[in-house]
Write a structure and sequence with these properties.
Catalytic activity: L-asparagine + H2O = L-aspartate + NH4(+)
Radius of gyration: 20 Å
Enzyme class: hydrolase
EC number: 3.5.1.1
Structural class: alpha/beta
Bound molecules: asparagine
Number of helices: 8
Low-confidence stretches: none
Strand order of the largest sheet: 1-3-2-4-5-6-7-10-11
Largest sheet: 9 strands, mixed
Organism: Ureibacillus thermosphaericus
Family: Belongs to the asparaginase 1 family.
Amino acid sequence: NNENVTVNNENNNEQKEELPNVVILATGGTIAGTGSSSTQTTGYKSGDLGIETLIEAVPEMKELANITGEQIVKVDSTDITNEILLKLGKRVNELLASDDVDGIVITHGTDTLEETAYFLNLVVKSDKPVVLTAAMRPATAMSADGPFNLYNAVLLASHESSKGKGVLVTLNDRIASARNITKTNTTATDAFKSFENGYLGAIVAGKPYYYNNVERLHTTETPFDISKIKKLPQVDIIYGYQNSPTYMYKAAVQNGAKGIIVAAPGDGTLSAKSVEGVKYAMNKGVKVVLSSRVGTGTVSPKEGYITSDSLNPQKARILLMLALTVTNDPQEIQSFFDKY
Ligand SMILES: NC(=O)C[C@H](N)C(=O)O
């Protein structure tokens, strides 16, 4: 059983008083992935290595912080479930409530990293740094990107200047807000891009440089309290395309969806058949949010519909799940999309 293993990189009397205390929560992904050769960069085993091995691989982190590690789960990020999100969010809040923890790093798979990052951005109740990092190349690959990304994440998590900026994501020496970062490439090491106000900053010569502020509200500024939530409402995403049928909306409703995100072809545009599906779902009390499959841009307001602002479908799903834990009022839900 690899869950909740706690390892310290130093025994306690070697912990340095003057250094901040950073906890690394490991969830799996390619950063913990292993292949059969140094040139294997696809088809490797995701989430294979434990947190101890990740920490041992980057002894330089000990100069930055006293490091403790915990294994939350060991999965490919496509297997991160709502239950895991809740477990992770609750653990982060529990740790940050302690005076002995100054910051948190989360290692994660890249495929759904933006979903977990945005979830935490909405539910963490602290202004201490929470930083997600990942890798595009497995730990066994030549020029693996994981170790330096992990080092940079610990650097950010232990830095005063990272406080109060919401949940951060770092890969490739860049610092991004969880709100704006997204994966844009299947395999390249520069897969992550930050849209809207771009990156918050960069890490240069071992120092974070912040240039932009986060305008959207986050962490302590949201009403979402997961401490007592056992299950998140089911929200599904339905793609829009030429000739798309209505039955997927019916299937979602019949299978218990409380919310549906439409990954619409353009600016929240719906085909006649999609409108039929959306109306069917809305008549059953299901909340429908129009997002876009385009990848960038804001969905403009539409009379009678909730729109996702600039949140892509997978992030809109995260916000709608949380919104439905506090309200069923479409106008209030829209106000969350306008603010967060
Ligand atoms: N680069 C990665 O981490 C991809 C992997 N499939 C994951 O998301 O867990």
